[in-house]
Amino acid sequence: MTEVFSSLDTYDVRFPTSLHLDGSDAMNPVPDYSAAYLVLRTSAGREGFGLTFTAGRGNDVQVAAIRALAPLVVGRPVEAVLENMAAFSRSLIGDSQLRWLGPEKGVIHMAASAVINAVWDLAARSAGKPLWKLLADLSPEQLVAQVDFRYLRDAITEDEALRLLTAARDGREAREEQLLSRGYPAYTTTPGWLGYDDEKLARLSKQAVEDGFGLIKLKVGANLADDIRRLSIAREAVGPDVLVAVDANQSWGVGQAIEWMGRLRPFQPYWIEEPTSPDDVLGHAAVRKAVAPIKVATGEHVQNAVVFKQLLQAQALDVVQIDACRVGGVNENIAILLLAAKFGVPVCPHAGGVGLCEMVQHLAMFDYLAVSGTWEGRMIEYVDHLHEHFVDPVRIQRGRYLAPLAPGAGARMRPESVAAYLYPDGSQWRNRQVSTAPAQL
Amino acid sequence: MTEVFSSLDTYDVRFPTSLHLDGSDAMNPVPDYSAAYLVLRTSAGREGFGLTFTAGRGNDVQVAAIRALAPLVVGRPVEAVLENMAAFSRSLIGDSQLRWLGPEKGVIHMAASAVINAVWDLAARSAGKPLWKLLADLSPEQLVAQVDFRYLRDAITEDEALRLLTAARDGREAREEQLLSRGYPAYTTTPGWLGYDDEKLARLSKQAVEDGFGLIKLKVGANLADDIRRLSIAREAVGPDVLVAVDANQSWGVGQAIEWMGRLRPFQPYWIEEPTSPDDVLGHAAVRKAVAPIKVATGEHVQNAVVFKQLLQAQALDVVQIDACRVGGVNENIAILLLAAKFGVPVCPHAGGVGLCEMVQHLAMFDYLAVSGTWEGRMIEYVDHLHEHFVDPVRIQRGRYLAPLAPGAGARMRPESVAAYLYPDGSQWRNRQVSTAPAQL
Q1: Is the pLDDT reported for residue B186 higher than 80?
Q2: Calpha distance A331→A341 (Å, rounded)
Q3: Which end of chain B is less congested by CB atoms within 10 angstroms, N or C?
């Protein structure tokens, strides 16, 4: 009997983070960090786990989108899929009817991402390797074959990618030793949520320095006077040697971003993240030109590799912030890592959400070993909540991510967490009223 | 008692168009044209109708997204919403948790569009006017107030929009007479679906000329030899005086688009539509530069006004193809019409789908009366199927859209059609197996 994918089960899992304003920013004052979670099983009993992170309301829509992909997966022979993940990705992302819902963006693309990542998780578990290691052990030719170059060749061709990956084999073993002994650099967003008061901001900022982080990030963009006050507090708390980045979460227009950052310039912010709409390539280019030497960072809402390509072509970015769940899964993230390496722009992954730290660390470590070959100027975001719900939670030591050693891609949640936080019937939700009441009414 | 929105009902309506390959193109060989349809009711018995067009599979996901917006609508006072449609739009599009699913793109944005359009439909019905007339009768100040300028001011400010709209008042009455007596120019896509054989292509092309259309459109991009043969057939059928546009439906990369269009150049295509990814602003600019004087058109998959803004800023487009259901409804389409007018680029709406002709004609006619003030170089797409399912179907005469006179925005479907084509339990679906089996398996 050929082994086939036999089931794809979905779960609407939500955490009531709005109770403590964890994750609060200028555009999302009261998020309930959530996961549209999926478990993929095969007829031989193998499993893979994937998820899409969401901010609460709408997690059910994301679950519906993942379910809509099930007929494209269930019944399919497992080995044939694993042997050609690029073709599998294309079959989900390019489905002739479903692609109208995107194409390659938003709910339907994130659903494809969750499924593709679950299959990679299954592949890594089967190989007995963490995903970073599975990917780094692929040959340059195998890696190039993972990528759909259709819309990317005007920025990077298959041949260029192959040369780049071949060159990155130099020193790979020494880097793996470094990674295993020291871990990968991290920065922390924990002190800087907009909903935290000044005392909590100061305390957590000092704590971050004690914990060994070299950069902290503050949410800005709701009120200029508050931003100036909070930046002063943070700068005083961390001292002159620790970097402070700021994140506007898309709250500004182009002109407004330039003006506002002019006012924050005295506090030497390291980067401004999401100054404006994530769709505005030309806008980011204008902001970058105007606010230099402050760096411009974006990516958590960048919908796909075509937009990253343009951000790089237009010299609109200093920092590429990949997200494990937003674009079309591991395959499209390999494309984005290749583009960033080609343009020489560092990748500092986004990880503020449920399971994002657990997942994206694999991509950054793979990049260090096999694509860019460096961690200079690179850090993975770290946020210290909700890790307890994962079977293999991230391990942070002295401001660095220790390389995960367990097989898989990181998305597997603890069954008891899934049961307790299942929305709306899990034990943690039955007696609450948080997520369903929109603020506007 | 204050009148409130009392219910928002959704319907998964699908038509088995794949049986005859109506609507077939290079990226979507077998679509089942569908509508995620909604009926909005108030406590005083008023009604509004809206829909999102989809290509079949995934219509249920779109329905789920519209449902997810219901708590933001039901219970809200109707007059307060109608008095500030911009604020209403923002409350749906900017919902702090739901926006993670976009933001402002894909499934969740199209859901907002359907709801916003339904409220405009209700407003037009209440005023006893067709939507084009309701909009054209608003003052320049009222129109400017419909638009969210946050991300647009680097291309057009409120003041510029106001000047433009004020200038367009000149000659408005004469244009309304012209519109009512002659109708608005149209072009037809009916002959050119990729799944039609050569005989059908020739016959329908001739028919289009006899019917008075000045432009026909052919799907291309799957096979170069086929494209050359089909273009020759169409050109011979229509003669030298009728324009022939081609549409690649995103099937090419940038370099490939330039090369392929080089081969089609001898047949003098009027425009190339969707040469590459709709997200690729810089790619469209490169294609436009290379294929001139062939025009570049796009828009049916352009996700929002921010991307249209950049396409115009980068001089990447000769023809702006708005869609009534893709962006955030009437309000965002007003923004796009203003941008197009500011940059002097003609708008030729997309209408290949269910109900798109019925809806988008209102926007083109409003543009003619109150924004661009001209129909030079402008045409609304026309496709001659599925109109019988609408209460107020479009009326085409001698290649022109007659101005609709019935109150409303056009999306209202016949109840018996909704019942019969309801998926999967309507009488037209119960004994079929078309839409659920994906091609990849």
Answers
A1: yes
A2: 16
A3: N
Place domain A164-413 in its CATH homologous superfamily. Answer: Enolase-like C-terminal domain (3.20.20.120)
Taking only Cα atoms into account, the Rg of chain B, rounded to an integer number of angstroms, comes to: 21
Range 182-241 of A in CB contact (< 8 A) with B: none
Please list the ranges in chain A whose pLDDT falls under 50. 435-441
Could you tell me the residue ranges of all domains in chain B? 5-128, 164-416
Report residue B57 CA to chain centroid gap: 20
- Using the Cβ of A159 and the Cβ atoms of chain B, whether some distance falls under 8 Å is answered with no
> Which residue in chain A is spatially nearest to B108 when comparing CA positions?
A107
Statement: residue B59 has pLDDT above 90: yes
Neighbouring C-beta atoms of residue A214, cutoff 10 Å = 18
CATH homologous superfamily of B164-416 equals Enolase-like C-terminal domain (3.20.20.120)
The CATH number for A5-138+417-421, chosen from 3.30.390.10, 1.10.357.10, 3.30.420.40, 3.40.605.10, is: 3.30.390.10
B contacts of A31 (beta carbons < 8 Å) = 96-97, 100
**Model ipTM value:** 0.96
In A, minimum Cα distance to B438 occurs at A72
Q: Rounded mean pLDDT of B253-269?
A: 97
* Alpha carbons A38 and A53: distance in angstroms, whole number: 12
Q: Is B415 helix (H, G, I), strand (E, B) or coil?
A: helix
Q: In this complex, which of B60, B95, B109 lies closest to A68 when CB atoms are compared?
A: B60
Range B5-128 has CATH code 3.30.390.10: yes
Q: Is A401 helix (H, G, I), strand (E, B) or coil?
A: strand
